[in-house]
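>> received
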Amino acid sequence: MEIKSAGIYIPGTTTFLNGVFSTELRGNGVDASGNKAGSAGIYTNSSMDLQAHYIYLNGTPNNGQNNVGVYTPNNSIINLGYGRIRIDDGKKKYRNIFLNNTGGVIHSESDMLLNGGERNTAIYAYGHNSRGIAQDVTVRSIKTTTATKRQCIYLCKRWL
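>> returned
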């Protein structure tokens, strides 16, 4: 996954983050040549334990696409704590939580909101974690409004 920018970016695997985090992503997710170049609210190779979070993927200004709220490319355990991950508009491939056969785990006590937009996904989870933990992704709730062709949850070989 090509990341253009991130609210929190942790490339190392031995770092540990604890605290509270908030960000708004407004990028359109495409570079000048038309290639995918999305952003992430949190992109981490290390485990983290947040007490609270607010991640806002704002696709309203420019029909954003290819942006992700939370992503780990490895088997990190991410605890987001209480908060919200919100997607407004955007035209495709906005994802609140994204696990693509990485072996990672994301736990959140957050409310997720898909508000408008087209072809956006609240949780995309493929493969199962390598940590021996029963649930790969947990969230408090998912709410949608007038979005079209949306998916609240996409699962393949995973358990919530």
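>> The two ends are 23 Å apart (CA to CA).
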